[in-house]
Write a structure and sequence with these properties.
The chain folds into 2 domains: about 230 residues, Alpha-Beta Complex (Spore Coat Polysaccharide Biosynthesis Protein SpsA, Chain A); about 230 residues, Alpha-Beta Complex (Spore Coat Polysaccharide Biosynthesis Protein SpsA, Chain A). The strands form 4 sheets. The protein has a 7-stranded mixed β-sheet, with helices on both faces. Strands 10, 11, 12, 13, 14 and 17 form a 6-stranded mixed β-sheet that branches. A 3-stranded mixed β-sheet has the order 15-18-16, sandwiched between helices. It has about 475 residues and is α/β, with parallel strands linked by helices. About 35% of the residues lie in helices and about 20% in strands. It has 18 helices and 18 strands.
């Protein structure tokens, strides 16, 4: 019995950069421009997460084949898109014109061979010539939308199975459109004379397929999110509660080793005027039904604190135990291991890595949320400031401030980012020192690392213990 033919699939994700006021415009009357953009952002990230999971599963099943994820985008340049969604994907601008023209161009270019060194940032994009397929392989192209909360990898697997034996697969939506279309060769006639944006789209596409004598198999029915009435089912989905009820949870991760005195001050500072969320209690409370508009304000940002201790012998454990709600981990293997373990336990959308002897400015959760509200900002930190006023230390602070120009802040400045980005970057490298700076270097290659103007006040003890000049030289050498 001959082995099944290998599948080479181009998975095209259609999305838009989430610029407030320009994305999900039909949802703006219900959500306001900023919340509508946040929803678009989270749904796009969810579809990409599903696509990546399918890719990993397919690699194990489709030996010798390949799956390429290509983001077909509009609303920004490829640099911003890469910062937002990562460097492991291909990026291609959508054509100008209606959806039919954009689909025609995207599917045609996905089947079109290109030079091996040709960029995928512009309109000319396709399979490198040196990778042209043989007769024992099947070329497939699938187009999928980005507003599909119920999409799962099983849909992609079913689409591949059905497309092996048929000309076309179509994933219907409840509003008369479709969320996925799969082909084995370009079919521009499928996208002509369609009333895009209406409830006639799917039936008109099926009629075009019949005229072309294409065998078509339907996929499971899903709901997309285009209209205000589509929002009701999302309000109970934990992935989107921060769109409707409260800002994203901020997880603060503090590595410690014999830091009792400093930790006491830092915890007192962090918990000032903030609500520390007990997630197990919160889950039992029914959230209020709210209607957001451009003038609505969400309640203050919530935080959780995770202390990852490396085996302290002082009163650190007692200090932690006295703080109700502060989570505690014991982690061996150095500070990088402590930070990674804390991040793995974190339940927040955002991560904030904080030294035990450092105190962020008042209002730090809101400052972090604002900074990470731009998808092109991959990470950030606060301005460096010590707790002792001396001319020598002021000069050191001035030198550290120059790191803003190179987007390379120090760990003393409090590094923050989305947990999604942290996981995609594979966390902190297992280094004995400067693990935070190594991660910052990698982050800066992906996108913008922002240093905020508000200061992080850190203890000058390390600088005093080792000597100002020596500590500054060490930092400069490793950077």
């Amino acid at each position: 019995m001959p082995s099944p033919r290998k599948i080479n699939l181009k998975l095209l994700i259609f999305t838009r950069y989430p610029e407030p006021g320009l994305t999900k415009t039909r949802l703006i009357p219900a959500l306001g421009p900023k919340a509508a953009a946040r929803l678009q952002r989270r749904m796009s990230e969810g579809v990409l997460q599903t696509a990546r999971q399918f890719l990993r599963e397919n690699l194990a099943e489709n030996a010798g084949g390949a799956v390429t994820i290509r983001v077909c985008f509009t609303g920004a340049n490829s640099k911003k898109m890469r910062a937002w969604l990562g460097h492991d994907l291909e990026y291609q601008r959508q054509a100008k014109g209606d959806l039919g023209r954009r689909l025609t161009q995207a599917t045609a270019l996905a089947f079109k061979p290109r030079l091996a060194n040709q960029s995928c940032d512009g309109l000319e994009c396709g399979i490198p010539r040196k990778e042209r397929r043989t007769e024992d392989e099947i070329e497939m192209v699938m187009v999928v939308g980005s507003d599909l909360p119920d999409l799962n990898p099983a849909v992609f697997h079913q689409a591949v199975r059905e497309l092996r034996e048929n000309d076309l697969v179509l994933g219907p939506t409840t509003d008369g459109g479709y969320y996925l279309l799969g082909l084995k060769k370009p079919q521009p006639e499928l996208f002509r004379n369609i009333d895009w944006g209406s409830e006639l789209v799917r039936n008109q596409t099926l009629a075009a397929a019949a005229r072309l004598n294409l065998s078509c198999i339907p996929l499971p029915l899903l709901s997309d999110v285009d209209r205000p009435e589509d929002l009701a089912r999302l309000q109970s989905d934990p992935r989107f509660t921060n769109i409707f009820y409260h800002p994203p949870l901020l997880s603060i991760i503090i590595p410690t080793l014999n830091e009792a005195a400093a930790l006491k001050q830092t915890l007192t500072h962090l918990l000032r005027d903030k609500m520390l969320i007990n997630m197990s209690c919160r889950a039992k409370v029914d959230p209020p039904v709210v209607s957001l508009s451009s003038n609505n304000h969400l309640p203050p940002a919530a935080i959780e604190i995770i202390v990852a201790d490396g085996g302290s012998q002082d009163a650190t454990l007692g200090e932690i135990a006295s703080r109700a709600g502060v989570r505690f981990l014991t982690v061996a293997g150095g500070r990088a291991a402590q930070l990674n373990a804390g991040a793995a336990e974190a339940r927040g959308v955002y991560l904030f890595f904080l030294h035990a002897d450092s105190q962020p400015p008042i209002g730090y959760p809101e400052l972090i949320h604002q900074a990470l509200g731009d998808p092109a900002t991959v990470a950030g930190a606060f301005r460096f400031q010590t707790d002792i006023d001396s001319l020598a230390l002021r000069l050191i602070e001035w030198g550290v401030a120059l790191s803003r120009l190179g987007q390379l802040p120090y760990g003393d400045q409090g590094l923050f980012m989305e947990k999604r980005v942290f996981n995609e970057m594979k966390g902190f490298a297992p280094l004995p020192i400067m693990e935070d700076f190594e991660l910052i270097r990698r982050l800066s290659k992906r996108g913008r690392v922002l240093t905020l103007k508000k200061p992080m006040v850190t203890s000058a003890r390390r600088w005093q213990r080792l000597g100002l000049l020596r500590t500054w030289l060490i930092n400069q050498l490793v950077s």
